[in-house]
Write a structure and sequence with these properties.
The chain contains 10 helices and 14 strands. The chain is α/β, with parallel strands linked by helices and 269 residues long. It folds into 2 domains: 126 residues, D-Maltodextrin-Binding Protein, domain 2 (3-Layer(aba) Sandwich), CATH 3.40.190; 98 residues, D-Maltodextrin-Binding Protein, domain 2, CATH 3.40.190.10. α1 runs parallel beside α9. The longest helix is centred in the N-terminal third of the chain and has 37 residues.
């Protein structure tokens, strides 16, 4: 009887070990296999985040730097890129719920986000710009004392502002809006005194309205951007990093950067 129980225990142990090994591998590779089988990568984005990903004013078509990058990377992986606008404040939840496969839209790499998601290798540099109206008396971060500052809800701008407590604590109010375009509209309307915004985005909108805005020499920090993926999607991330490295090596990154920014200075090689 004891021998039978021992054999039974060994059988259960071996079967459990094999099952666990298969499950572990399946979990690791599921994202990559799923994407290959469905033939597409679903890209989550804020479709007002110009010039990274936004809608053409005439055609309403999604265009932008990250749009071009995602399409090229997907093509090299043998699939297509499908773009899905989501509320930016809930974009990580959309990723975890598998409503999207990646967050690819000027996503700043932050320690807080790293606790929830994994990133591709960083591919572009950015800073948190402070924008005012032309002629404003605000010239330094110290001048923001007693002022109303606006930014985008759920953006890395919020984290950058809140990290500088010495400055943030002096604001009369920090207003958070669904989009940066709304924050800039509040500035133009006089309901905010300054906007903290990603430099890549702020420079784009300021170029469209010359003479309307001004920027401070100081900012709320330098940062890097990457593509966000789920913690479990290790195989997919490895392949994505490989493709992005190839795009940097063969000049594709530089071509796309020149198209959208007129320079390649911000690209991380």
């Amino acid at each position: 009887m004891k021998r039978k129980l021992t054999l039974l225990a060994m059988t259960v142990f071996i079967a459990t070990t094999i099952f666990a090994g298969c499950f572990s591998k399946e979990t690791k590779d599921t994202s990559l296999e799923d994407i290959k089988s469905k033939g597409k990568i679903v890209v989550g984005l804020d479709d007002t985040f110009a010039p990274m990903g936004y809608r053409d004013e005439t055609t309403n078509e999604l265009i932008g730097f990250d749009i071009d990058l995602a399409r090229e990377a997907a093509s090299r992986m043998g699939v297509t890129a499908e773009f899905k606008p989501v509320a930016w404040a809930g974009v990580i939840l959309s990723l975890d719920n598998k409503d999207i496969d990646v967050i690819w839209n000027g996503l700043t790499i932050t320690s807080e986000r790293k606790e929830k998601i994994n990133y591709s290798k960083p591919y572009i540099e950015n800073s948190q710009l402070i924008v005012t109206l032309a002629g404003s008396e605000i010239k330094t971060k110290a001048d923001l004392s007693g002022k109303v500052v606006a930014t985008q809800l759920g953006s890395s701008s919020v984290e950058a502002i809140e990290a500088d407590t010495a400055t943030a604590d002096t604001f009369t109010e920090l207003k958070k809006f669904d989009t940066f375009t709304t924050a800039l509209a509040e500035l133009k309307a006089g309901r905010a005194d300054a906007v903290v915004i990603d430099a890549l985005v702020g420079n784009f909108y300021m170029a469209k309205e010359p003479g309307v805005y001004a920027t401070l020499e100081e900012n709320f920090g330098e940062e890097e951007m990457g593509v966000g993926v789920r913690k479990t999607d290790e195989a997919f991330l490895a392949e994505l990093d490989k493709v992005l490295d190839e795009m940097k090596a063969d000049g594709t990154f530089d071509q796309i950067a020149t198209k959208w920014f007129g320079t390649t200075n911000m690209i991380i090689k």
